[in-house]
Queue: 4 jobs
Job 1
Amino acid sequence: MVTRQLLKTTKSNILTAQMTRGFEILTGYENSGIILPTRKTALSAGYDLQSAENVLVSNKKISLVPTGLKAFMLPDEVLMIYIRSSLAVKYGMTLVNGVGVIDADYGGHIILPMTNLIGEFEIKQGMRIAQGVFQKYLPIDGDEIGIGAIRTGRFGSTGIY
């Protein structure tokens, strides 16, 4: 995957390149066959995310599907996660929250909460299950990106309601 690089001068005035957007394989998943997400065509917006494990997804039950990945991005960006349309249309699969939102300050494991609307479906390890789209976002007037509380957790870490 080609990533944009940010040039940064260190204390010793050495110019270095720092990765600003992309994915990393988590510790413990390095030898599990996971590959970094890629775009499948020249004009695809989304990077295909694969399942890191076999998971049976049942109707009316929430299954957490691990990807073995974490993402990194600039402070004014977000990674939006969408179900692959073929899984939704052919097999009734959906993300429980509709669209996943991975904020720039979340450096943990990307785990997808999924359910099946019509029965059971077995997700196999390595199956492409979702797409991640990096996007810029705009704060409202008077709000500054990077000002506020520090993230301390995963699902619901900014509050239940």
Note: The two ends are 37 Å apart (CA to CA).
Job 2
Amino acid sequence: MVPMLINIKSHAYRDDETDEPINLLTYGQLTQEGGRTVLEYDEVMDETMPAQHVMLTLENGSLTMIREGGYSTQMIFTQDCRYEGQYHTPFGAMDLALFCNRLKYDLTEAGGTIDLRYQLDINGQFAAVHELNLTAFPHNG
């Protein structure tokens, strides 16, 4: 397990509008075994809510994201593929569907990046196009 400093930049686009970009700096752990890379970190998007544990697994050209906590979900991103699942919130579950139109990653114990773009639909309705750029650096602190 390698301690990592993780920088995440995220944007959501709806029609001709762009949401305020989200920038998150956090610490996590990277593990590699065989052809699988796992990056785990806690995400705090709002100080009024507890941290959400996130696990990203990169394997065979796909990215699986598992988010635990009050807003939990599993999403699988594969270039040019659709994924359907559920998003669990304190207010109930919602159906989600995503179509990944960009997934590039190069992430090892020496650090690296994930570049992701996907369309997200919630309960059958277009929600937004999301872009996520993650950069990870080894951290010995």
Note: The mean pLDDT is 93.
Job 3
Amino acid sequence: MPASSAAASSAPASSASAASPASPQPEGVRSEGNETIAYRAALQVIAGSEPSIAQFIVEELAAQRRQLKLIASENYASPAVLLAMGNWLSDKYAEGVPGRRMYAGCEVVDKVETLAAEHARELFGAEFAYVQPHSGIDANLVAYWAILANRVEAPYLEAASAGHVNDLTDEDWADLRRKLGSQRMLGMSLDAGGHLTHGFRPNISGKMFEQSSYGVDAASGLLDYDEVARLARELRPLILVAGYSAYPRRIDFARMAQIAADVGATFMVDMAHFAGLVAGKVLTGDHDPVPHADVVTTTTHKSLRGPRGGIVLATAAYREQVERGCPMVLGGPLAHVMAAKAVALAEARRPAFGDYAQAIVDNARALADGLSRRGARLLTGGTDNHLVVLDVAASYGLTGRQAESALLDAGVVTNRNSIPADPNGAWYTSGIRLGTPALTTLGLRAAELDEVADIIDTTLRATTVATVGTGPSRARYELDGSVADAGRRRSAELLSRFPLYPELQL
């Protein structure tokens, strides 16, 4: 894909604007009370139909306000993004694409989708953007089937002198189905930081492809590009997938693209986790996947700080197949979510977003440094992106499940995560994954992230493995209540200085 000609960005750099990452107000001017008025009114309307749901919404806000969110795949969307989802755009069916729908009356939805796609193209410098996917999994499914349609189905139809799959004989259709179901994919292994949707058996992608994995160097924990190239030459995959959910370093996408080209593979990148770093121009050149990949997928709710949803970016060669995502894979487009995507992408095109994206990485490095100085073992020894993987087994003698639960007691929300060749498996794990996008949105910076590192280290050093029956448990743990209380107080004090949605008083 060509490099972007111009892509400005936006986001908050301080807690005062954290709840409204892209406020259009001039500096020093606030729309006092607008957010509170809007949400109080909305909650009153909801309570009129189901008061329990209104109460649960308020409870969720309270829960998020009292916990330090370090889940790498979560963030805080602006009130504008959230409000864009709660409206009558939800009530329109719009299968198809702008100007070519299966339902009448989609003139406004066409405008919404066109604007969202325009923002995505300009922000990332892509030739084509498809903003309909409902999630990251859906975006990947659209990408996979678009690649299969381009690389397998289209040549088959041409050879059979058929214009459409419905024109094939039953025998030819059965033959094409076999070919579609026997293609190879090469992607990053789960324990090295890959994702379930990259061809693994529990996910539908693993039932679609003959999947093989590349891992990381056992000593350094870093990608071994020579080994990836060797596997690609041996396996000759149709698709080479790059991207990660728990790899704390940057990827040389130019080199991966060359590996794919050498074996005739389509190069696909899933940048769901680090799309905000690409949008904010922290990842550029060989570390920006968009100029190098045939197809790029992403979610919109992680480091992009938008609504829950997905996007597919592609070269013009794949546009026709990607646009068939609905009804090929997707149900009717969610017009209200596409509207929220347009708002979030517009926010990300403003200049302040670049500062925000850089602060995410700076904060991750500060967190990694703080943990390392306190004696913790980190995968690869640190980070170059938005996340840190802490080996809690080596550092504290705990499983990831025990560490995750103990930290929650102390007011810190994380998620357990496998490490390479994990002896505790994928359920209990030996690691926890820590991400900085959400705390960066709140306005925390290096000094506060060092304090967060101390809360984590102090809590985990005080956590011990509980005994169940005659042996140690991999789930139960013991943590002195005074230590948990101290952690919660410290977490609460940080959050009092950097509150979530300070303009919302419910």
Note: Confidence is low (pLDDT under 50) at residues 2-31.
Job 4
Amino acid sequence: MLPVELKKDIFWVGVEDFGRRDFHGYSLAPRGTTYNAYLLKDRKNVLFDTVDAQAAAAMLERLEQVLPASKVDYIVANHLEPDHAGALAYMVERCRPEKVFCSAAGLKSMAGHFDISGWPVQTVQNGETISAGLRNIRFVETRMLHWPDSMFSYILEEKLLISGDAFGQNLASGCRYADETDRALLVQAIEEYYYNIVLPFSSQVLKTLDLAAELKLEPEIIAPDHGLIFRRPEDAAFILDKYRELALQRPRKKALVFYDTMWRSTERLAGTAAEGLDKCRVPCRVMSLKNHHHSEVMTELAGCGAVIVGSPTHNNGVLPQVSAMLTYMKGLRPLNRLGGTFGSYGWSGEAQKHIAEALEAMKVEQPVSPVKCLFKPKTGDLAAAFALGEQIGAALTARCRE
């Protein structure tokens, strides 16, 4: 693919990875991903971020269609995670820049990943501005969005925000711009990315959005390090509003039921709980952990104000995939959910106690006692599972009216 000129003398010089499916070892990237890097041509030519190490040569080839690497004066490392800085040493060697800019926390990360002795590294402060000639670049620290070293680069005269991992998506499509893609697909990719990567830092997202307003940053173009670029003012406004919505985690009238099962008794309870939700006209998705990756389940939770978890008792605990899902979910810290638990047992029946405790630790409000049944569910057990779904559905409906 050729370089893409976003504005006069500002180019995308990144790389698409159509084959990527495993993202960072814990999340799926079902549509691949991109490693976005950007080049500003001015009196000082500035390269913003690099790419994954395995894509370094492809990035260099793309960059050199715009200008020789030796003409790059500055490199800005907004974020030192390997998918954005893996090619940093490769590019420093070929560009021999005058300066490599990063945040103070970024310097620690940089030194941890590379031998930077002899590199012309210069740390920048929050709000500091440097001149590239006709254009000025302001740096905004965005600590824990989603690493301590993260920062934004804002090209003032162009109202162009290079945002690192914030506002990204895993989406390799051959397109560069958000307005070239189906909006429903784009929203799904944004939610996948947010709920599996950014969610624990939602309070920082809100602070950063407020800080951007304080600093009078009014981007008309937002260029993240993954996925599609928001090149129109209305699209920039859309992604800023979308992030505020996701960060606030207001309850939505939709529920998620996820479970694992041994002999399908717990599976039957899952379907019956969903029927109870349906009676309250609460849309619901039922997901078996045998068939769905934990990142898919987490993405579904993005649109749900309630989560109901099922597992039979196994070795006095829960089935391993349920335990793993709860651990993953806890680390991502979802807020403002209602929930409940159900399952069958043959001997001791502790699974629901463990699940209820895990939900409580995540501050999931549980308006209904756990439902469990001995071996196959009988008429009374199915009635209890139906009531579980119905009562959670009613509580969610009431909450969404508040």
Note: The first strand starts at residue 4 and ends at 7.
